[in-house]
C-alpha cells in the first residue's frame, strides 16, 4: 500500500467509500488498537502474523502444528460511541486559492473525506458512529449506529453537505448536542474561525461531560504562508466583508497574527484538556491521519 | 496643433481612465475564512500603492495626450502638402514685376488664392494680376510697410500650408519682419531677374588708422572683407596708416573711415569724391562718447533701424538711427558738403559692444548701403544672394525651421520617457 496519497488525486475518484477504505486500509493492520481490547472477546478467525502485531497474540499451538505464525482475530464488541461534529459554516468552503489546479479542494471536502475515513476505521473496529453537521441555518444529525449500512448513511450525508452561514451559537444547538455529552469519543472538526466564541462555547460544553473530545483544526497552506502579492481585496467567506490590503506589506503582520491565533486556540483547548490537531488540507490525508492516530495512541498509553 | 484629428485622438485619454476605474472596482479578490486576522494588518503601504496607481494613471493619460498631439502634428504635416497655397503680393512688387514674374507667380500659386497687400487685403484672380500691375505702375506706387497688415491677417486667418509672400528687397515693405518669423512664410524677394532687383552695389571703402584707432580699424577692415565675400556687392576696402596717407589715395572712395581722434580738417585737404561719406572710427579710449553701454534687448530683430530726423541743438548733429528702445545709435552732420557719421556709443566697448555681436557685419552693411535690405533685417528669408556657410549672412542665422519640428522631437522624447516610466512603475506595482 502506497503510504502517501495525495487527497486531491483521490478526490478525482469521486467515490468516497473507496477513498475512505483505501486510506483507512493502510492503518487497519497492526497499527491501530481498540481501546476495548479484551472486552467481550469471541474467536472470529486466524490470520497471518504481520509486523506490528503483539507477540502475545500469536497462537503458539497453531505455530507448533503448522510452523507458521497465526494471530487470533476476535469479533470485538465496543461500547464506545464515536461522534463526528463538523462545522459547516461558510468559511469551511475556503480552499487553497494559490493552487488553481482542479479539482477545487475545500476544507469541507477534506473534512468529509477525513470523517469518512475515520468513521470507517471506527466502524471496522465495531464502534458505534454518529455524525453531526452544524451551521446556523441547517443542522444534520445522523444518530449513533453501527455496521456498514450505517456508515453508508453517514457517507450519504457527507456527500450532500453544503457549507453556508456561520457556526450556530450554543443556545441554538443545545438540544441537538445533548446526545454528545454521553460517554464516548468526540471529534470536532472545524477551522475554528468564529464570530463570538461559538466554537469555544461548544468545546467547553462538551468537555465537561464524560466525553473525550478531540479537536481537529483544518488549515490551508495559504493561511499559514500568506503567499499573496500586490493589492488584494480579501473577502470574508461568512460575512462578505471586504478589505483592500497591500499583501506584501501585510504579510509579516498577518503571520504574527496567525501564530497568535493558533497559540490562543492551543491554549484554550489545553485548558479544557482537549487535544488539538492541526491538519493542513494541502498535505496528503493518510499522512495526516497517521500522525493523528499516532498522537492519539500516545495519549491513550 | 489643434486640428480635428488631434482632438479626436485626445478622446482616447478616456481609455487609461476607464482602465483605472475598472481595475479599481475589480481588484484581485481572495475569499478567506476569516477577515479578522487580516483586518489588523492594514499598513501604510496601501496609501503608497494607491498613490502609485494615481501616478501611473497620470503617466498613461500623458502618454495618450502626447500621442494625440504627435498624431495631430503628423496629420497636419500630411495635410500641408495637399492644401492649396496662399500668396500675398505687395503692390510695389506687382508694380515692379515683369510679365514673366507674374506668370511665375501664377505657376507657383496654381489653384491657390492670391491676395494683394493694399490698404486692406484684396483677393486677386489670376487673370486680374496683369491688369492690376499695369494700373499700379500707372499710379506710380511707392513702397510702404505691410508688416502690420500681414501680421493681423495671419493671426486671424489660419493657413495649413506655407504662406508665400512676394515682395521687393526693400526693408521698408516689411518694417517689422521679425514679428513674422514665427509663421511659415516662404519669401519670394525679387524673383529671378525681376524688376526691383537693384544693381550690385559698388562700395569703395578706405580706412584710415591712427595709432589710437589701429585695432578698431583693423577689425572694421576684416568685417568688410567678410561682407565682401558674403554679399553680392562690389566691395573694395583697404586700410592705410595715417602717416602714410597719400593725397590722391581717396579719390575713388565712396566711404572713408576716419579716426575720431584726428581733426577732420586734415581730411578736407585730401581730394574726395563729392558723394563720399565719412564714418568716424572711435578710438580705444573714446570713453567720452555718449554711451558705452551695450545695447539692451539685443538681438538684431529688436534693432529697428529707424530713421530719426531729430536735431541736436547746438551741436548740429542729427540722429540718424535709434533702437526700438530709443537708444540713439548714430548721428550725422554735414560738414564741407560731406555727410559725416558718428557712433553715439562705443561699438568696441569692453569686447561686448555692438562690434562683438554676430549681427555687426549686417549693421555695418546697412550703414554703408544707406538702404536697408529685406535680407539684412531678416537674414533667414530665402533670398537669391550668394551665401557661404561661414559668412556674415549666416552668422546671424537662427533656426527658424517650422516650430513643430523641434516640438515633435521633444514630444517623442517625452513620450518615450513617460512610456519607460510607466513600464517601470507598472512592474513595481505588480510586485508590490
Structural write-up:
The complex is a heterodimer of chains A (301) and B (432). Chain A has 301 residues and is of the alpha/beta class. Chain A has two domains: 42-75, no CATH class; 78-283, Rossmann fold, CATH 3.40.50.410. Chain A is 39% helix and 22% strand. Chain A has helices at residues 7-11, 16-28, 60-66, 107-124, 148-160, 170-173, 198-207, 221-225, 247-271, 285-300; strands at residues 42-48, 70-75, 81-87, 128-134, 139-145, 184-190, 211-219, 231-236, 242-246, 276-280. Chain A is globular. The model of chain A is unreliable at 1-5 and 30-40 (pLDDT under 50). Chain B has 432 residues and is α/β, with parallel strands linked by helices. Chain B folds into three domains: 4-28 and 43-82 and 405-430, no CATH class; 86-197; 202-369, Rossmann fold (3-Layer(aba) Sandwich). Chain B is 39% helix and 17% strand. Mean pLDDT of chain B is 72; it is low at 191-197, 286-309 and 374-403. Chain B is elongated. Chain B has 14 helices and 14 strands. In chain B, the strands form two sheets. In chain B, strands 8-7-9-10-14-13-12-11 form an eight-stranded mixed β-sheet, with helices on one face. The A-B interface holds A 91-94, 97, 107, 191, 193, 223, 228-239, 241-246, 248-250, 253-254, 257-258, 261 and B 27-46, 48-49, 429-432. Strand 8 (231-236) of chain A pairs parallel with strand 1 of chain B.
H/I helix tally of chain B: 14
Counted by DSSP, the helix tally of chain A is 10
Q: Would you state the CATH class of the largest domain in chain B?
A: Alpha Beta
Tell me the distance between the termini of chain B.
Answer: 39 Å
Q: Quote the distance from N terminus to C terminus of chain A.
A: 27 Å
Beta-strand share of residues of chain A = 15-25%
Order of secondary-structure elements of chain B: HHEHHEHHEEHHEEEHEEHEEEEEHHHH
Amino acid at each position: 500500500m502506497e503510504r502517501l496519497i495525495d487527497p486531491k488525486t483521490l478526490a478525482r475518484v469521486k467515490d468516497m467509500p473507496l477513498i475512505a477504505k483505501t486510506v483507512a486500509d493502510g492503518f487497519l493492520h497492526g497499527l491501530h488498537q481498540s481501546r476495548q481490547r479484551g472486552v467481550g472477546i469471541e474467536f472470529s478467525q486466524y490470520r497471518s502474523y504481520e509486523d506490528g502485531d503483539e507477540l502475545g497474540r500469536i497462537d503458539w499451538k497453531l505455530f507448533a502444528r503448522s510452523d507458521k505464525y497465526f494471530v487470533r482475530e476476535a469479533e470485538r464488541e465496543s461500547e464506545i460511541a464515536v461522534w463526528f461534529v463538523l462545522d459547516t459554516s461558510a468559511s469551511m468552503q475556503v480552499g487553497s486559492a494559490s493552487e488553481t489546479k482542479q479539482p477545487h479542494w475545500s476544507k469541507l471536502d477534506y473534512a468529509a473525506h477525513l470523517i469518512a475515513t475515520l468513521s470507517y476505521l471506527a466502524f471496522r473496529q465495531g464502534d458505534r458512529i454518529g455524525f453531526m453537521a452544524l451551521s446556523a441555518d441547517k443542522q444534520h444529525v445522523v444518530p449513533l449506529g453501527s455496521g456498514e449500512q450505517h456508515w453508508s448513511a453517514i457517507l450519504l450525508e457527507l456527500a450532500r453537505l453544503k457549507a453556508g452561514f456561520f457556526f450556530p451559537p450554543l443556545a441554538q444547538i443545545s438540544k441537538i448536542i445533548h446526545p454528545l455529552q454521553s460517554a464516548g469519543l468526540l471529534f470536532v472538526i472545524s477551522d475554528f474561525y468564529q464570530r463570538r466564541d461559538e466554537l469555544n462555547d461548544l468545546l467547553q460544553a462538551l468537555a465537561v461531560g464524560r466525553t473525550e473530545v478531540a479537536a481537529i483544526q483544518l488549515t490551508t497552506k495559504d493561511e499559514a504562508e500568506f503567499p499573496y502579492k500586490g493589492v488584494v481585496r480579501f473577502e470574508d467567506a461568512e460575512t462578505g466583508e471586504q478589505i483592500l490590503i497591500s499583501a506584501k506589506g501585510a504579510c509579516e503582520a498577518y503571520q504574527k497574527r496567525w501564530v497568535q491565533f493558533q497559540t490562543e486556540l492551543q491554549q484554550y483547548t489545553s485548558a479544557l484538556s482537549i487535544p488539538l490537531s492541526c491538519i493542513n488540507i494541502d498535505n496528503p490525508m493518510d499522512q495526516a491521519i497517521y500522525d493523528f492516530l499516532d498522537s492519539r495512541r500516545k495519549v491513550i498509553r | 496643433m489643434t486640428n480635428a484629428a488631434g482632438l479626436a485622438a485626445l478622446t482616447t485619454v478616456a481609455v487609461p481612465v476607464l482602465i483605472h476605474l475598472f481595475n479599481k472596482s475589480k481588484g484581485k479578490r481572495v475569499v478567506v475564512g476569516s477577515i479578522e486576522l487580516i483586518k489588523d494588518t492594514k499598513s501604510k503601504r496601501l496609501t503608497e500603492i494607491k498613490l502609485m496607481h494615481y501616478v501611473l494613471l497620470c503617466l498613461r493619460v500623458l502618454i495618450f495626450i502626447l500621442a494625440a498631439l504627435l498624431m495631430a502634428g503628423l496629420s497636419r504635416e500630411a495635410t500641408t502638402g495637399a492644401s492649396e497655397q496662399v500668396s500675398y503680393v505687395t503692390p510695389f512688387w506687382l508694380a515692379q514685376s515683369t510679365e514673366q514674374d507674374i506668370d511665375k507667380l501664377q505657376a507657383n500659386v496654381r489653384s491657390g488664392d492670391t491676395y494683394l497687400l493694399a490698404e486692406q487685403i484684396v483677393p486677386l484672380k489670376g487673370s486680374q494680376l496683369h491688369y492690376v500691375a499695369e494700373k499700379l505702375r500707372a499710379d506710380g506706387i511707392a513702397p510702404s510697410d505691410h508688416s502690420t497688415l500681414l501680421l493681423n491677417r495671419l493671426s486671424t486667418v489660419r493657413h495649413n500650408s506655407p504662406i508665400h509672400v512676394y515682395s521687393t528687397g526693400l526693408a521698408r515693405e516689411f518694417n517689422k519682419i521679425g514679428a513674422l518669423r514665427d509663421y511659415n512664410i516662404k519669401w519670394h524677394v525679387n524673383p529671378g531677374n525681376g524688376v526691383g532687383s537693384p544693381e550690385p552695389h559698388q562700395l569703395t571703402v578706405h580706412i584710415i588708422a591712427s595709432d589710437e584707432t589701429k585695432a578698431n580699424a583693423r577689425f572694421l577692415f576684416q568685417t568688410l572683407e567678410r561682407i565682401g565675400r558674403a554679399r553680392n556687392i562690389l566691395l573694395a576696402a583697404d586700410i592705410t596708416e595715417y602717416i602714410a596717407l597719400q593725397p590722391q589715395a581717396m579719390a575713388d572712395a565712396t566711404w572713408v573711415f576716419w579716426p575720431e581722434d584726428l581733426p577732420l580738417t586734415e581730411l578736407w585737404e585730401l581730394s574726395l569724391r563729392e558723394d563720399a561719406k565719412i564714418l568716424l572710427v572711435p578710438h580705444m579710449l573714446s570713453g567720452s562718447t555718449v554711451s558705452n553701454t551695450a545695447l539692451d534687448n539685443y538681438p538684431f530683430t529688436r534693432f529697428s533701424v529707424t530713421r530719426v530726423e531729430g536735431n541736436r541743438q547746438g551741436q548740429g548733429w542729427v540722429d540718424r538711427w535709434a533702437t526700438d528702445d530709443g537708444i540713439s545709435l548714430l548721428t550725422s552732420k554735414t560738414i564741407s558738403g560731406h555727410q559725416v557719421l558718428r557712433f553715439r556709443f562705443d561699438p568696441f566697448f569692453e569686447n561686448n559692444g555692438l562690434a562683438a555681436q554676430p549681427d555687426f557685419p549686417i549693421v555695418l552693411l546697412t550703414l554703408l548701403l544707406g538702404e536697408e535690405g529685406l535680407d539684412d533685417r531678416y537674414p533667414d528669408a530665402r533670398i537669391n544672394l550668394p551665401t557661404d556657410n561661414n559668412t556674415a549672412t549666416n552668422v546671424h542665422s537662427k533656426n527658424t525651421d517650422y516650430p513643430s519640428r523641434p516640438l515633435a522631437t521633444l514630444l517623442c522624447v517625452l513620450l518615450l520617457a513617460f512610456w519607460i516610466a510607466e513600464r517601470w512603475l507598472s512592474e513595481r506595482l505588480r510586485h508590490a
